[in-house]
Design goal:
The protein is an all-alpha fold and 40 residues long. It has one helix and no strands.
C-alpha cells in the first residue's frame, strides 16, 4: 500500500470506531500512526 492509502485507511478506521469519543484528535492520531509503516 502506498502512504496515501495508509493515511486514508487510518483516518477512516479512527472515525469509524467512535467519532464522539475520539473527536478530531483521534482522527489525527489515526492519520499519523497509519503513516508510520511507510516511514524509513
Amino acid at each position: 500500500m502506498d502512504t496515501f492509502t495508509h493515511v486514508v485507511t487510518g483516518a477512516v478506521i479512527a472515525r469509524a470506531i467512535d467519532d464522539e469519543k475520539i473527536g478530531k484528535w483521534g482522527t489525527l492520531a489515526g492519520l499519523v500512526t497509519a503513516a508510520f509503516p511507510d516511514a524509513g
